[in-house]
Every structure is written in C-alpha cells, then in structure tokens.
## 1
Amino acid sequence: MKDYWVRDLSLAELGRRRIEWSRNFMPVLSRILERFDREKPLKGVRVGACLHVTTETAILVEALRRGGAEVNICASNPMSTQDDVAAAMAEEGVRVYAFRGQSFEEYYRCIGYVLASEPELTIDDGADLISTIHKLYYGVESEELKHVREASGDLGVKRLVEGVIGGCEETTTGVLRLRAMARGGRLLYPVVAVNDAESKRLFDNPIGTGQSALDGIVRSTGALLAGRDAVVVGYGNVGSGIARRLRGMGARVTVVEVDPIRALKAAMEGFRVETMRRAASHGELFLTATGNISVIRGEHFKLMRDGAILANAGHFDVEIDKRDLEALSVRRERVLPCVDMYVLGDGRRLFLLGEGRLVNLVCAEGHPTDVMDMSFSLQALSAEYLVRNRGRLPREVLDVPRELDELVAKLKLEAMGMELEELTEEQRRYLASWELGSR
Ligand SMILES: NC(=O)c1ccc[n+]([C@@H]2O[C@H](COP(=O)([O-])OP(=O)(O)OC[C@H]3O[C@@H](n4cnc5c(N)ncnc54)[C@H](O)[C@@H]3O)[C@@H](O)[C@H]2O)c1
C-alpha cells in the first residue's frame, strides 16, 4: 500500500503556509483540537476520510490525529484537491491519496487505498467511501470496483464492516444516499448526518456556498454580476443562498423549483419563478443547486442564448447534462483554465465552468474558512460522539445531538464577540406550560 499519492511534494511549504493562515479563521475547531490533544478521545481509532482536500480539511485531520486517531484520506471529488495542501499533509505523515485532476480510475484507486487501512470510522462528503463499502459488502458490481479492488488488495470486507464504529456525512447528497440505504434496510452501521445539523446546513450551505460559488464564477470568467440575467435552479439551502447573494450583487435573478413550497418562498422573497424551459430562453448565467440529475439538459441548451454561462454548485457533475451538451455541439474548446466553450450546430456558444463540477471548489477555493470552522467542528464532535457510544447506536442515519449542534453555535458566537441572551426562570416555565396564556 502506498503511504501517500499526491501531485508534487515540493508544494508542501506553500500548503503549510496556507493551512496556517486558515487556522486564524477556525477558532472553534482550534479549541476542539486543543481539547482532543489533552483528552485523546479517538485514541487508536483508524479513520478513513473522503473529503475535499483543502486547508480546512487539513486542520480537521490534525484535530482527529491530535485526538489519537490514525487518518487515511482521499478526495471526495477528482477536481477539488488543493495540491499544495495534500503535499503538506503527506509531509506531516498523513496518508493522503489526493491530487487535482484525477481520472475515474485514479479517483477510485484512492478510495481503495483508504479502504485498505480498514477504517473504523468513515467520514464522507457525498458518501462515495461508504457506498463503496456497501457495494463490496452486498456484492453490487459496478465499474469502479475493479479499481477499488486493485488498490485495496485482499480486503476482508465482512471483517472491515464488523470493525466499523460508525460514519459521518458532510453533505445533502450524501445524506440522501444514506437514507436510501437505510430505507432499504441495508445500512451497515450508524452514520451521523452532519449536514443536517442546524449549525451546518443554515450556514455552510447557503452562506458558504453562496459566497464561494459566486467567487468561482467571477474568478473563472471575470463576469460582472450586476444587471446579469441569472437563473438559479433549486431553491433549497444552497440555491436560496446563491440566489440572495446574486441579487445582492445586482443580478436579475430567476428561480426554478419543483417543490411548491420552496418555489412560493422564492416568489415571496421577490424572485421571479419560472419553468426551466422558460428560464432557458432568456438566462445569461445558470447555476444549478438541486442534488438532482439532468436538471439542465438538451431541450434547454437548444433554447439558450449565445454566450450563456453554465455552472453547478450541487455535489455531483450530473445536474448539467454534459452528454446532451456534447451531443449538441460541433466543437468543444478549453478557452480558459476553468471554462469550456461548447459550439452548437448553429454557431451559438455555451460556456461550461469547471466541467460542471462544484464551481466553488473547482474554480475557487471552496467555502470561506470561517464557515468550515463550524462544519468541521461538528465533524470532529460527531466522530467523538460515535466513538464514545461505540456499540450502542442503531444502524440508522442519526442526527447530530442537539447539544453538540448548539455547542458549536455558542462557541462560534463567543469567538465572534457576540452575546447570547438567557431565558429567565419565569420565561422557561411559561414556554413549557399549557395553562399559562395572557395575564
Ligand atoms: N458546492 C458546495 O460546496 C455544496 C455545499 C453544500 C451542499 N452542496 C450540494 O448542493 C446540492 C443541494 O443541496 P441543498 O442542501 O441545497 O439541498 P436541498 O434539498 O435543501 O435543496 C435542493 C432543492 O432542489 C430542488 N430540486 C430538485 N430537483 C429539481 C429540479 N429538477 N428543478 C428544480 N429544482 C429541483 C428541490 O426541490 C430542493 O428545494 C446537494 O447536491 C448538496 O450535496 C454543495
């Protein structure tokens, strides 16, 4: 088994400096890291992580290791790894298998290397690691498993599963996949849905992705957002944050939604709400954030204006149908590092950013660190929770315990110099009673 697989170790110094810079914006995770260092709650636990390899992830990994864990990590997206960070982690002795621009085969080989360490705790962003374990266990054959097996060698998957304490999942798409496993009665061990914690999904998804998705678009294209006709597909946690930030930058924003309540919310928050077909005909900038497949597809590309820009903020690169785009195009050219131009039969040009993968991670640097401070604090605390409750939790998708969710919010408020009001005893009683009404 390889000890690491990174692009270029000589980038380590830059990676170290950028990790140190990020530390300044992670006060909550830093406190947890210090406590982990003293208490060693993860002593001897083998952690397998499949996360975007960024500066913030490096600090999460450090926290887990200070807590006593042995960490093996691969990337959760073939294009999101920051190579300098991966190099710095490798030099620190982390078994890291990640580099930007992985092929399909390389991506799954890296998952195989992590599995070869027989993790007792899995930490996913998008559920690729855990779903690979489940496919191997249940004998569900698929193309990628060949590469996983080549890298993992003679993996005793039954033994691996018996040894797993639990898992954590970072994002909405991953949680959806886990719930599908749990519904079918197939989930093999307890998994904490970190994504669903309020101090994650109310901040990371709308605010973190909101800012960083626009950052990705602006960095890769230099486009002015003010006055632009922008279409946001999906008005969930992520999409609503993007739509609000686009409006804040002066864009004219249309929302496309399938859920009537969320569509109504968008309408009442002042957005135009339309079908994808109608929006396709006038939009200049399209951003998908649905976690769903082919939400922009052939029938829509056919209607688009020359020069339309297409980007995705959802977890997988399936939201903008690249196969349809290829099929309709007579030519494709990479015109800028993060921009592919597709020329359609009639000469119209459509510009796809970051190959239709997470625009904020591929064309920029992902969420601002301050936001990841909360998400990764929840990851660290959830890992500790799973280990402390080893053998006692059901094989279900579990919520982050409310006290941990609130603890992260409280620590963040404290770090921001904010104050929290406290309920008086009378107020506590009033809120808990059914007899008391007006005075
Ligand atoms: N880029 C990032 O860094 C980042 C961060 C967090 C989450 N994510 C990913 O973003 C995606 C969305 O996450 P979320 O938390 O907003 O999920 P969500 O469930 O809150 O919202 C998704 C919305 O899309 C809508 N939708 C589904 N199919 C649609 C269609 N065909 N047309 C229009 N709308 C449709 C749903 O009704 C829902 O309102 C997920 O894949 C998630 O994993 C990415």
Note: The pocket of nicotinamide-adenine-dinucleotide is lined by residues 171-173, 205, 209, 233-239, 256-259, 262, 289-292, 295, 313-315, 358, 360 (CB under 6 Å).
## 2
Amino acid sequence: MTKSLLRILYSSKTHQRLSEIDLTKLLQQSRQNNWQIQIHGILCYNHSDFIQVLEGPETAVIKLYQKILDDDRHYDCKLINICLSNKYIFNDWSMGYIDISQGNMRRLRQELPEKLSSDNADKFAFQLKHYLNSPSQKNADQTLFI
Ligand SMILES: Cc1cc2nc3c(=O)[nH]c(=O)nc-3n(C[C@H](O)[C@H](O)[C@H](O)COP(=O)(O)O)c2cc1C
C-alpha cells in the first residue's frame, strides 16, 4: 500500500506559561486550519513544554511545520520522529489536546527521548490516542510511556 501521509512528532518549550485564553486561541486556530488541509494530530502541553503529533498529506505537514517552527509562542523545537504512513492515527481529531501536567503524564516530557524509531513513535502516538479517548482520562495511570 502506498504511504502517502507524513507523520511528525516534535517537542518544544514555552518562555512562559500560556494563559487559558491563549491556549484556547491556539487550539481553535489549529483546528480550523487543520480541518481544511486534512491534517490531524494531538497537542500536549504542561505549562512549559509542548509535544505535538501532526499527520496528513506530505506537503501540507511540511508547510505547517515550517510555520510552527517560526512561531514565537514557543522555541527549541526538536523533531523526535518523522515517518511516512498509510493511515491516520488521530483520524477523529483535527487537533486533540491533553494537559500533560495531569497524572503520570507529568513524567512524559522528562522521559521522552530526543529521537524515537518510527515504530516507537507510532506506539507512543497510539498511547496518546488511547489517553485522549478515555472519557475520564483516568486511564493515564495505567499508561506506560516509552
Ligand atoms: C505548539 C504549537 C502548535 C501549533 N499547531 C498548529 C496546528 O496544528 N495547526 C495550525 O494551523 N497552526 C498551528 N500552530 C500555529 C502556527 O504556528 C501558525 O501560527 C498558524 O498556522 C498560522 O495560521 P494562519 O496562517 O491561519 O494565520 C501551532 C503553534 C504552536 C506554537
């Protein structure tokens, strides 16, 4: 099967904690834009660090990532994995959101390596999806991150 989608996983930092209003604006803007260009994914934030997965048509993802790299709401973007894929993981979400300061998600940023193999990056993305889809997000305590 042709792998026509591109998926990237990156982390970055914020200079200062984003307000609820600024975070909501960022999510609204992302969801509106992503919907139009068939991009899906998830954004995790813990008051000082972002982790984001973006997936979609190759050119659209690259163009968006270039815009994101230039965004002064964050800095120190580190590309953890980039891979081709034949299906969306976050097909139900134009941009899902997890507050990673909750539960054992807090450990995530410290434990996430600078680079992941594509298999492990996919595994990690599925774990985030599982967390996102659990109604009370209590399952985070049973989630084992790589
Ligand atoms: C951590 C982070 C994640 C972002 N994620 C997205 C995204 O998924 N989609 C998006 O369109 N913009 C995202 N942005 C915003 C872009 O950097 C940029 O401001 C936006 O795409 C510009 O939209 P416009 O062309 O409609 O003005 C993100 C910004 C930050 C700081």
Note: Helices lie at 20-36, 58-69, 105-111, 118-133.
## 3
Amino acid sequence: MRYIDMKEFHTVTTKQTMRMKTLLIACMSAAMMTGCATESTTQSGAVGADRKQFMIVSEEDAQRAGSAQYAQLKQQAAARGALNSDKKQYDRLVAIANNIIPQTAVFRSDALSWKWEISLFNSDEINAFCMPGGKIGVYSGLINKLKLTDDEIAVVMGHEIAHALREHSREQMSQALGQQAIFAGLSILTGMNATQLDVLQQAATVGLTLPHSRKDEREADRIGLELAARAGFNPRAGISVWNKMLAADGSGPPQFLSTHPAPESRIQDMEALMPIVMPLYEDTIKNKGHRNHR
Ligand SMILES: [Zn+2]
C-alpha cells in the first residue's frame, strides 16, 4: 500500500543533486563492468522471501531520499495541525510499532539500528507507508474509516515495514535509474548535462512515489504477516483488513488498490500462509501472556 501525491514531493536539494551526479557515474561504471548488480536485502524468514534484487542505488542514498521526503511530509502536516494531533491513536500506533520493530531482526539484524520514526497524519486518506530506513506514516483515515483493530493495524504496519526491509523503493529507484541510463548511453562518460541530472532526480522520485509492483506487494504480505505474528498480533487480521478495504466507503476499493494484485488472490495467498504464521503467533502469545486486543 502506498500512494503519495507527487505534489508533495518536489525536487531534491542542490547538495543531493551533486551526490546524485557522483552516484550516476558510479552506477554506470559498476553496471558496465559487472553487467548487473544483484543482492538479497533480507534473510528469507519462515515465509521464505528470498528473491534476488537488482540494486545500483546505494542503501545510504535511498535512505537519504526517503528521510528528506518524510521530513517534508511531516513539515507540511505540522503546518496544518495534522501531525500526531490525536494523541490516543498516536500512542496506540507507537505501542504496536514497538512490538513489531524488534521482530525485524529475523529478516535483517541491521534494521534494529535504523532511526525508526512513526507519524500519524490526520487525513481522510486510507493509506500507510514505511520509507527506506524505517520512517513509518499512517493516515488517520485508514484507522478511523476502516475501524481497524490492533491486530489489523499490526498487519498493515508489518506489510509497510516489510517494504522497507526488502528495500523495494531502492529497487524501484535502481530500475528507474537503469532504464534512464540506457537512454543516456555512453554520453554519460563525456560529461553531465541538465537533462541527465533531472533523470537522476526522477529516479529517486519514481522510487519513492510510484505504487509498488505486484511482486513487491506479495513479498510485503508474506513478511508482514510473519512480523505481526511474531509480535503477538493475530495474522488472520490480514484477511479481515482486506475485506474491510474492499468494502471501504461503498465507493469501491481505495486508489492504491487499483495497481495491486487482485484482493481475492491476496486473501488466498494469506490463507495459504496461515499454517506457517499461526504457530509463530501462538508461541508468542503463550510466552508473553494474553495481549489486550481491541
Ligand atoms: Zn504494499
């Protein structure tokens, strides 16, 4: 799930532009020398997410771009009094996130040292996201319109966090940059021009603003269910939250669903994962004692 208005994301700063210039030269050199660059961002977990990913943008650059956009979104929301203005709901989100974040180590231990942040945006939108490096955003419309339980919020949050763990945005930036580099061709080696710098900015924008691919969504569903289950939230909520989204407003599914896998097939996939994730949930509950769910 992710849809961020392009209007809200302007261009990167001049300093970043210079960094990107360096980046593009480095990327082109690497791509030309090695042909391609693949890596695995995470361990596969119990759910088995182990696809190799094409990466030519560095993790550091992706996190920097994500942090810049996150800061801008927070600033804009704060200016209209719409940032973390509902303390009760904000505290609820923090409590859920604090249970989930330690579980990320199952997939990648370095995530524990990320500078995690969570923000509640007061907005009618049914949306949530987690940007590179653990910058979580939840729109109040998601919680209020769908009347989500803690379990359901946890499954959505787990899904969004999974996108960040798997670095889907960095992958999208890399793909965008790779495509643009083909157009730019060898002229890149003879010097940069304004158009090529625009191309780099566009790649970062694409990675942060376009909807995730279907393949990424399925991966995020798998990892997200495991994160929620290990954190002691009932993963069956993944199915109920999808049914609620489909019924949202009676005006059809939210906009971001239009590019996502068919909800019916996602629900089927989640059902198939229950024998794997339910025991993880049950173990956590047994060890921690019962959680008070809403
Ligand atoms: Zn998603």
Note: The two ends are 23 Å apart (CA to CA).
